[in-house]
Specification:
Blueprint (H helix, E strand, L loop, with lengths): L13 E9 L2 E8 L6 E3 L2 H15 L28 H5 L6 E9 L6 E6 L4 E5 L2 H21 L16 H6 L4 E2 L2 E2 L2
Antiparallel strand pairs: 1-2, 1-4, 2-3, 4-5, 5-6, 7-8
Length: about 180
């Protein structure tokens, strides 16, 4: 069962505003209390990288492992970070497709653990990895899309029973393809 509510008293709170979906990938904006402006992302990988960069700069939550890489990069020097944005201001931000408030509590086993709140429904779920976080966000956005599609008139579309499920049904319906290639 989902918990309810936001976690307001944490310095690493991030609000993910998803604005667009294209080819099963999302783009939008990230808001946090340490940046004066939103940080844009064009895809999910970029979103994860930018969130990880913030956690590295804050050094919170502290990573329990050092990330592996093929090519060593210069070590980032931790700088003192001050809060420049009021938490209530970032919590008011809304994405066109969905809004998610993320609180990463731990960075163990080279991934994240924490809670995510789907702002539109005020539902909170825990996640055990960055992949699980992405799946929760994707599930929520799919549910929103299904709600929108339920409102669309589908009377002009073919009935589900009329759509061939496999090549054999396609052949039986007078289609031109056989299982092994062209119909003889």
């Amino acid at each position: 069962m989902a918990e309810q509510g936001y976690y307001y008293e944490t310095s690493n709170l991030i609000v993910i505003c998803v604005d667009r979906e294209k080819n099963e990938d999302y783009s939008g904006r990230l808001y946090d209390c340490c940046s004066g402006e939103p940080v844009g992302f064009e895809n999910v990988l970029q979103m994860i990288k930018r969130m990880e960069e913030l956690y590295d700069v804050l050094d919170y939550p502290q990573a329990s492992t050092v990330g592996r890489c093929f090519i060593e990069k210069r070590k980032r020097i931790r700088r003192e970070v001050t809060r420049v944005t009021d938490r209530t201001r970032i919590l008011r931000q809304k994405g066109d497709l969905g809004t998610f408030v993320v609180r990463v509590q731990y960075r163990q086993n080279a991934t994240w653990q924490g809670q995510v709140t789907w702002a539109e429904r005020q539902e909170t779920q825990s996640f055990r990895s960055a992949l699980e976080l992405l799946k929760l966000i994707d599930n929520a956005l799919d549910a929103e899309e299904d709600n929108v599609n339920d409102d669309i008139d589908v009377s002009s579309h073919r009935a589900e029973a009329e759509i061939p499920r496999c090549v054999g049904e396609y052949e039986a319906g007078g289609g031109s393809l056989a299982a092994g290639g062209d119909k003889k």
